[in-house]
Design a protein that fits this description.
alpha+beta; 6 helices; 10 strands; BirA Bifunctional Protein, domain 2; globular
Length: about 240
């Protein structure tokens, strides 16, 4: 779908440095995601806040910086791949798959982002699903939004027996991705490659692939995708 919209596919390393994973994405040293409780560090270089510290990337977003280093604007790319975070519950797993999207040009707006995401959601989970954008805060985008899709497992947060839906936790909505306009501070790291924040602007988004599978197929617990239960897996053969 993204290729049809004019995006190219690029990939990058799963073992990253703190520079690409955090610093070049405008993530301050005080951000909680940089703590050892939130990131799998492999070899801290002096300490976990050193730009050279090695870690398992927490998102595929570092590749957007690498892509801008390699190619001047305009740039339209999607980045599929694995990411890692020390989380484990019905909607989180320590290893997951993400598709990062980045569009940079001279006239990219938030309306372009909204249109791209609406096209994606309708193509993947159907025209009947409701979509909402909520204001949020991410270090590498400003303004930032969270994108939610109406839960496929319940009606307004309640299951058929009237109980609280365990998938959406009773809210009636499932968060599927974060997005926003690229923060000018990110462009400063690649200004010498043609990304002058006074001349270009762009949007970025990160999609959790397993979250999309949950929505599309009504899977109640993300961990079921990794349990190797043949009875479950045969449904998608």
């Amino acid at each position: 779908m993204f290729i049809g919209l004019g995006f190219s596919v690029v990939e990058g390393p799963e073992v990253e440095t703190a520079y690409y994973n955090f610093d070049a994405l405008n993530t301050p040293v005080t951000h909680p995601s940089r703590l050892m409780t939130d990131t799998f560090y492999l070899k801290p270089a002096g300490d976990i806040f050193d730009p050279g510290a090695l870690l398992l990337r927490v998102h595929t977003s570092p590749v957007q910086v690498r892509a801008m280093e390699r190619q001047p604007p305009p740039l339209y790319v999607v980045v599929p791949g694995r990411a890692y975070r020390p989380d484990a519950d019905a909607t989180h797993t320590p290893q997951f798959h993400q598709v990062e999207g980045l569009a940079v040009d001279c006239d990219v707006t938030l309306a372009d982002l909204r249109g791209t995401l609406q096209t994606f959601v309708r193509a993947i989970v159907g025209e009947d699903r409701r979509v909402r954008l909520r204001p949020h805060s991410f270090p590498f985008t400003e303004p930032s939004v969270e994108v939610d899709v109406s839960c496929s497992w319940c009606v307004e947060g309640r299951t058929r027996d009237g109980g609280r839906c365990p998938l959406c936790k009773g809210s009636g909505w499932i968060e599927i991705l974060g997005a926003g306009m690229v923060d000018p501070n990110v462009f400063e790291h690649v200004r010498d490659r043609g990304y002058d924040p006074e001349k270009v602007q762009g949007f970025a988004f990160g999609i959790g692939v397993e979250r999309i599978a949950m929505l599309k197929h009504g899977v109640p617990d993300l961990r079921m995708l990794y349990d190797n239960d043949v009875r479950f897996l045969e449904q998608f053969g």
